Amino acid sequence: MKNLAGLILLAAASLGISPHPLANKRTPQIIAYYGYPVEVHLVTTEDGYILELHRIPHGIKEPQNSTSPRPPILLQHCLLCSSAEFVMNTPDKALAYLLADSGYDVWMGNVRGNTYSKNHVSLSPRQKEFWQFSWAEMGYYDLPAIIDYVLDKTQAEDLYYVGFSMGTTIFWAMMNDRPEYNQKVRCMVGMGPVAYVGNAKGPLARASSQVVLIESLANFFGRYEFLSFGVLMDKVMGFACDERVFTSALCRNILFRMTGSNEKQLNKEFLPVFLTNTPAGTSVWTVTHYLQEIKSGNFQRYDYGEELNQQKYNSKYPPKYDLSKVVVPVALFSSENDWLAAPKDVEQLRLELPNVVYHKVVADPMFTHLDFVWAKDADQLVYKHVLKILAIF
Fold first, then answer.
1. Which parts of the chain are beta strand (E)?
2. What is the set of active-site residues?
3. 10 burial class (0-12, 13-18, 19+ CB within 10 angstroms)?
4. By the 8 A CB rule, do 159 and 109 touch?
5. Rounded to two decimals, what is the model's pTM?
6. Domain chopping of the chain, boundaries
7. In this predicted model, what pLDDT tens digit does every residue of 79-137 receive, in sequence order?
8. Residue 74 pairs with which residues in a beta bridge?
9. For helices 143-154 and 166-177, what crossing angle results, to 10°?
C-alpha cells in the first residue's frame, strides 16, 4: 500500500499537478485561509478524554475588539467526521462562516477518537481500553463537557446547538441521561437527524446482519479504531480525487456507493478537501452501535450481549432511550434521498420528540445525507432556513 501511494504521489509530481490549496489542511488552517479569526481549545471529559474544539469568535468584517454580544452556537459533526465538515466550502456557502458573519460566536466540537481528539490523561490510542466507547459515551461525557466549557468561556446562560447526523444522536442520548442540559440549550437544530435507523440503506444497512461477526473479527485482529487513514493516505487522496485527474471518477463512485448519488450537488472542486478530512476515524464500537440499531429497529444503548448487559444494565437487553426527555425546542431538516436518516425513521423521531417546532424536508428530492454539509447549494436549500429558525429563539 505504501509503495502504491508513493507511486501515485510521484506521478502527481511528474504531471506538475498541485493539490487543492486546502487539501490536507486541518480545520484551523482552513478557517485562517479565508481570513477568519480562529481559536483552538482543549476540553477534558470526566473520564479523561481530551477533546479539541475549534472556534470562530466573530465574523470576518467585525473588529476583533468589538464588545457587541454574540450568542454562542455549537456545531457537532457526524459519524467518521470532524469539525472540518462545517468549513469545507467558500465563506458564502459553508455553515460556520455564515453563522459567524450573522453575529454568532461559533464553536465546533470534536468527539473522542477522531482526528483531533486522540488524547487521554492516562490512556494511549495504542491501547484497547482507549477505544472502548461508542456514541453513548459521547452523549454522556463529551457533549456535556463541551457545552459546559463553551458556556464557561463565553459567560452565556445557554447556547444554540446544530447537530448533523451523529451530532443529533449524541444530543438525544445526552438529554436522556442528563435532562438538566435542556436548560443550557436555547434551541436545537438537527440536520439529517438520527435516532432510529431501522430503515437505513446502503453498506451500513447491509453490514448490520453481520454485526456480531464484525465485532468478533475486530477483537480477534486487535482492530479497535475504525477508518483513520493517516497522513500518507490523505496526501494520496488529495491528488487522486482532484477533478483534473482521471481517478477522481473513482472517488466520486466510492462516495456515491456509501451515501447515495446526487451528482448535481457534488462540489467537485472541493472533493480532495472533503476526502482528506473525512473519514476522520472513530472506534469500532461507535459503528457497531449503529449496526445494532439497524438490526433491532430500536433507539437503545450499546448491546454487550446478555451476560454483560445483565452486569451493566441489570437487564438482558439494552435499555431504550427516552426521547420525551428532550424538551428543548427542536427544528428538524431531513431529505427524501437520505440513506442514513431515512424518511420513515425521521418521522418516528419527530413523533416521539415532545417539542418539534419546525420540520423541513429539503426541496431537492435527490439530496443525500452528506449533502447537508457538502452540497453546492446547501446554503440555499438548508442554511438560510436554519438562520431564520435560530433568529426566532
1. 39-44, 49-56, 72-76, 105-108, 119-120, 159-164, 185-191, 225-228, 280-283, 330-334, 356-361
2. 165, 338, 369
3. exposed
4. no
5. 0.90
6. 2-8+17-392
7. 989 999 999 999 999 999 999 999 999 999 999 999 999 999 999 999 999 999 999 99
8. 107, 161
9. 90
pLDDT digits (tens, 9 = 90+) for 200-253: 998 778 877 778 777 777 775 667 888 665 554 445 544 445 555 544 555 555
Question: What's the chain's Rg over C-alpha atoms?
Answer: 20
CATH number assigned to the domain with residue range 2-8+17-392, chosen from the 4 options 3.40.50.1820, 3.30.1360.20, 3.30.300.30, 3.30.300.20: 3.40.50.1820
SS3 call for 177: helix
Q: CB of 176 within 8 A of CB of 322?
A: yes
Q: How far apart are CA 146 and CA 111, in angstroms?
A: 9
Task: Give the separation between CA 99 and CA 110, rounded to whole angstroms.
Answer: 18
| Measured distance CA(224)–CA(125) in Å, rounded | 9
- 235 φ, ψ (degrees, to nearest 5): -65, -40
| Cα separation, 25 vs 365, whole angstroms | 32
Q: What is the pLDDT of residues 253-290, one digit of tens each?
A: 565 666 777 889 988 888 888 878 888 889 999 999 99
228 and 280 Cβ atoms separated by less than 8 Å: yes
Alpha-carbon distances, residue 11 vs 79, 254, 393 (angstroms): 33, 22, 53
Q: Please, is 73 exposed, middle or buried when counting C-beta atoms within 10 Å of its C-beta (0-12, 13-18, 19+)?
A: buried
Q: Cα separation of 171 and 188, whole Å?
A: 9
Give 239-298 as a DSSP string. Answer: HHTSTTSTTHHHHHHHHHHHH---GGG--GGGHHHHHHHS-EEEEHHHHHHHHHHHHH--
Distance (Å, whole) CA 2 – CA 231 = 11
